[in-house]
Amino acid sequence: MPALVLLGAQWGDEGKGKATDLLGGSVDYVVRYQGGNNAGHTVVVGDQKYALHLLPSGILSPGCTPVIGNGVVVDPSVLLSELSGLNERGVDTSKLLISGNAHIITPYNVTVDKVTERFLGKRKIGTTGRGIGPTYADKINRVGIRVQDLYDESILTQKVEAALDVKNQILTKLYNRRAIAVEQVVEELLGYAGKLAPYVADTVLVLNQALEEDKVVLFEGGQGTLLDIDHGTYPFVTSSNPTAGGACTGAGVGPTKISRVIGILKAYTTRVGAGPFPTELFDEDGEALRRIGGERGVTTGRDRRCGWFDAVIARYATRVNGLTDFFLTKLDVLTGWEQIPVCVAYEIDGRRVEELPYSQTDFHHAKPVYEMLPGWSEDISKAKSFSDLPKNAQNYVKALEEMSGAPISAIGVGPGRDETIEINSFL
Ligand code: GDP
Ligand code: IMO
Ligand code: MG
Q1: Does domain 103-198 have CATH number 1.10.300.10?
Q2: Given this model, what pLDDT does residue 228 score?
Q3: Candidate list 41, 103, 167, 266, residue with the active-site label
Q4: Is 241 annotated as ligand-binding?
Q5: pTM score, whole prediction
Q6: pLDDT tens, 177-220?
Q7: How far lies 90's CA from each of 77, 84, 113, 419, in Å?
Q8: How far is the CA of 355 from the centre of ligand 2 (A)?
Q9: 3-class SS at 172?
Q10: 208: exposed, middle or buried (C-beta count within 10 Å: 0-12, 13-18, 19+)?
Q11: Is the distance from the beta carbon of residue 40 to the nearest atom of ligand 2 less than 6 Å?
Q12: Closest ligand 1 atom, CA of 411?
């Protein structure tokens, strides 16, 4: 049972970093397969807190090899500063492997991300401004720059020229910005080549050989199911596939190798950026979830939008990812509410709808149908087993499990590694 995928079941920030880190001690490889430094994964080890953006959360487990797969987009300056930040804190990062096929977020991709958002005005996506969308667009348009291009100056120059040909027209004529010089970009990118060289590898080969040797490989998703470019709330999504299939294309591993798909599910819902969110709260309950849950973006520092748990979304995540398990996080945040509303279905234009509507218009009109579950007031942060939880907390978990379509195999009761109740082993 060697290959597991761990991914966000909602709109990101479900606690993937903590869950990955928890498993990191028992797996041989942790692989990021999509996204880039739009991700912000928090890991708390003892009294130390780490915010990871591009590096897989397995980097904090000494026995584990962290891998940045071909499906990831890499901003070299961010990667290098993340590495040196960890080195300064005594973390050994020498095992890191980076796919030579991963695409590079160039400075002009970051510029285009920012000006496009500004140009969209009220219709903006609310991106992280890290150049993610434009870099994936270049990849699909076949004018992207890959990590391996850093090692051939002539090819790199030709590719940057090709990419900037069109972009400079757009920047100067449409957005009224200054053109970006090819030489400047090439020089900056070549400056990263030597520093990244020790890490660059044929990660597809490495991972497939590892699987043949029965090594355990964990694929760590960035973002979440509802931010998926194909299966999310398009156009208010990111530009990659965080869903389970993305692990195969983004790492070069066949679907027959994946044995378990774990959905990380927050006990309530949050979202950063624009787009529909049926259970969003605009009252003091939303404020309380934000405050108690510390719901502020790790990457951009934006307040996260908060709302109650949405079982329609959880069921959808089970379906599109083929989830085998859920890891329910932040149950402790719900302590103290007398009653906890849970969205069990939507009402759309007078109809009750049990499953996520494929139509964007319908989803925009979806109003949550709530069922009230009794809350608990006891501190649950020290709970070590399911039976340590107060009865009402147990019932809340059981109700969510029933509604969501896959077993809840672990429960987070605090941000620390050990603040976890393990119900079924993942390995
Ligand atoms: P990610 O992007 O999915 O890795 O999640 P983030 O790190 O952006 O946000 C999750 C936040 O919740 C982080 O601050 C974590 O330290 C914290 N966290 C994770 N699991 C739990 C939990 O079970 N309880 C509490 N209180 N905090 C948690
Ligand atoms: P982690 O991995 C939450 C959101 C942005 C925006 C949309 C598109 O920490 O869960 P992008 O910069 O990707 O083009 O922005 O996606 N977004 C996230 N929201 N958590 C994330 O990552 C996110 N990464 C991107 O806020 O709405
Ligand atoms: Mg995050």
Answers
A1: yes
A2: 98
A3: 41
A4: no
A5: 0.98
A6: 999 999 999 999 999 999 999 999 999 999 999 999 999 999 99
A7: 20, 10, 34, 24
A8: 24
A9: helix
A10: middle
A11: yes
A12: 23
Site residues for ligand 1, CB cut-off 6 Å = 8, 12-18, 40-42, 44, 294, 298, 329-330, 332-333, 412-415
Least confident window among 92-101, 155-164, 297-306, 396-405: 297-306
Q: If phi over 0 gives left and psi between -120 and 50 gives alpha, with beta otherwise, what is residue 93?
A: alpha
139 is catalytic: yes
**pLDDT tens digits for range 81-133:** 999 999 999 999 999 999 999 999 999 999 999 999 999 999 999 999 999 99
Q: Which CATH class is domain 3-87+203-422?
A: alpha beta
Query: According to CATH, where is 1.10.300.10 located in the chain?
Result: 103-198
What's the mean pLDDT in 305-333?
98
* CATH 3.90.170.10 location in the chain: 3-87+203-422
Task: Quote the pLDDT of residue 1.
Answer: 57
Closest CA relative to residue 251, chosen from 84, 98, 109: 98
Cα 199 from Cα 65, distance rounded (Å): 11
Task: In whole angstroms, give the CA distance from residue 207 to residue 305.
Answer: 37
Active site residue 231: no
Q: How far is the CA of 51 from the centre of ligand 3 (A)?
A: 9
Cα gap 4→261, rounded to integer Å: 6
Cis geometry, peptide bond prior to residue 56 (ω within 30 degrees of 0):
no
Q: How far is the CA of 415 from the centre of ligand 1 (A)?
A: 6
pLDDT tens column, 246-262: 999 999 999 999 999 99
Is residue 41 part of the annotated active site? The answer reads: yes
Q: How far apart are CA 29 and CA 243, in angstroms?
A: 19
Q: Which of 31, 34, 27 is nearest to 12 (CA)?
A: 34
36, 40, 46, 48 alpha-carbon torsion, rounded to 10°: 90
Q: Which two tokens stand for residue 364?
A: 């925009």
